[in-house]
Structures
1.
Amino acid sequence: MSDPVNSTLDSLEYRTEVKQLLDILAHSLYTDREIFLRELISNASDALNRVQFEMLTNHEVVDPERELAIHIEVDPDAKVITIRDSGIGMNRDELIENLGTIAHSGARTFLQNASKGPGALEEIIGQFGVGFYSVFMVAEEVTVISRSYRPQDAAARWQSKGDSRFSLGTAEKEDRGTEIRIQLKEDAGEFASTWRLESIIKKHSDYVSFPIYLKAQEDKEEGKVVNRRTALWRQSPSSVEADQYTEFYKQLTFDDQPPLLHVHLVADAPANVRSILYVPSRRERGALRMQPEYGLHLYSRKVLIQNHNRDLLPEYLRFVEGVVDSEDLPLNVSRETVQSNPITRQLRKALTNRLLKELKTLSEQDTEKYITFWHEFGIFLKEGVAMDMASRDQLVDLLRFHSTRTGPDAWVTLREYVERMQPDQKVIYYVVGDSLKSVMRSPHLDYFRKHDLEVLFLADPIDGFMVSSLREYGEKQLQNVDDANLDLPETPAKEEDVESVPDDAFDKLVERVKQVLGDRIRAVREGKTLVDSPARLVSPDDDTARDLQYIRRVLEENYVAPAKVLELNRHHPTVTSLARLVETDEQNELIDPVIEQLFDNLQLLEGAYSGSPADMVERIQRLMAAALRQ
Ligand code: ADP
Ligand code: MG
């Protein structure tokens, strides 16, 4: 490649974020530098997909007959690798825009995490790549010469050493597409070998759907195609080996972990569909996907129509990866019309059904694996129960709960719960809180524990959201145990010899508590369901939105929950002593702080304490001092 002598060679500065990225990459000790090739091939493949899509409707393109392919050439002596594609190409402005700023979402995440230390960076380079710029891990200098598919656009040339600048000029290039010439760094000479490149391509890019030709520069022939190129999803499931699914997954997603589950759907009615869907093994990757990048690859007759289609699965299944190919989608569909196409709706139904069925089978046949799934993605299914009426019936049996019977280590389904309900039990009980620890200690559970009534623990912020739309399972209502008017199967048996606060003393105590707590509580009354706890807070009947408190507390900064009813346990030693003190020594300076603390304890257990820790510590110290004085 000779330097074109021209006067329009401009030198431009990279955007700041690119400079930062390049600086980190240049100094990174990342050992798997080979992924630069995966990134460049993936860009070439994107460019080929785009021109293929363009040509469906536009015949005014440069080189319409040219084979859609990638050619890689190696010069071992000069330590140069050249990668050519016949893709969509870039004009001068596009070169500046695409290779001077940060387009790649992996690269953006990379920069955000740059401060978290080398471990985080390595993981991102490995799993997501950092796009085009990863070439500077191995390149001394990179030259890109590109000719856009638009006949009127001139070819252009971009060049950079990966420092703070790049230069732009004109170029001679007759054919459509992009050519990237990499002058390797001194210490990256190992990559100037066809043997090495072939093994990297097989490892990371085997399923790229366009042929990748590879040859050494001195070879006169065209080079041989080194990638497998199979559209795995178009094969019959019985002919695909398990590790082919895994390899395809890794190459599709760049995830280095195998998927937890795959589903291969081949059907011709009601709609033609060839699809492979994957459930990844970890959600952690999903956190990076919080960027609007999720979605399935949608093909029609092997032409990629969309990279991230979101219409083929309900939103709550956004953690699912995969490919969908349907010959029933018209080839010239625009991305917008995919959404409104009736075929899309049919496909979505078929895919969702199949995936949920597969999860059900997993839950029945491999409990341990299903629980792994549940830990990672259960929250998405809960979201589905809350948001997606169409899937609800299938989703409810996929839910898993901890309960008063399972404890924190085992799980129960709604079906199992109902099957083992007490004979006279009418409803499904649950307790809501902001952590498993606090719901397990909830004073609401006293009665249920004593009577061996199972209560489900709901401790995810999304749980309240879920139960407020899932009001029943089968014929059974779901009921919060903090309900003020629980219709309990029987009243708790009181042991005769337990001391109880007499009526008039109790009335006085109630008055005093009301006076101290004021409008922080709605009312004070006797709690008949309490056994081991001195008190509890119950929601008044009219507080219909209380299950949403936990999620609102997460979402709204200044959220204040509506006041509740305070119930006191007339048999609890703290309450009996307090009542006695109010009756015999109402000036006692311990009374008010004890009432305050009793109330705050309940708020703490519910994860709803909004007061100041300093105030509480001061009060506790006063109470401790008094206790020690006795
Ligand atoms: P990403 O591929 O995630 O968008 P990259 O950093 O890999 O990010 O690439 C940046 C952009 O450069 C691409 O989005 C694309 O527009 C352009 N690009 C890179 N390589 C090519 C190529 N071979 N042909 C056409 N465009 C390309
Ligand atoms: Mg890319």
2.
Amino acid sequence: MTRVAVLISGSGSNMVSLVKAMQGDMAAEPVLVLSNRPDAGGLAKAAALGVPTAVVDHTAFADRASFEGAVQAELVAAKADLVCLAGFMRILGADFIRLWAGRTLNIHPSLLPKYKGLNTHARAIAAGDSEAGCSVHEVTADLDDGPVLGHARLDIRPDDTPETLAARILPLEHQLYPEVLRRFVAGDRTPLVIQA
Ligand code: GRF
């Protein structure tokens, strides 16, 4: 049974979908939800789902290394095998990534490798793309750059704004991430495509 830690910074809607999927028939269990923000709404949701939580407030640390050292200590204490980033808004340094190479997943709101970084939906609309979506990928030292394990795609509508597009893609994230995790913990790396 793979022991999964989920890292969040905000509302944690992706974390909720992962936890609920793991509490179903998946060979994985949620052992920790960790937030870098004490006020993250996802912390209460995790507690309500019976998952242990931790806060490692990045503003309380002088530098990235000490922050990541504190995160690592929580992951070791929880005996986590796998890390799922879910709306975690801190860039993890190479040393941390090396510790967790091949054992860290992330969900990103674009069809990677397009639109790494922020403001992904606005950029897709501005580029006149016909479709948008989200990706689950393995985390490597380069931002939003690791092997893609799954895509969920939908058509951009002429009247879409970044906000309406984000709202239509978020449910796809909640579908894609648990399904990729299910395959990943079963040792299946076949890229998954969900076409909405
Ligand atoms: C999602 O849109 C995800 O793609 C991005 O940040 C948002 C997190 O939302 N990484 P939530 O905290 O999972 O609700």
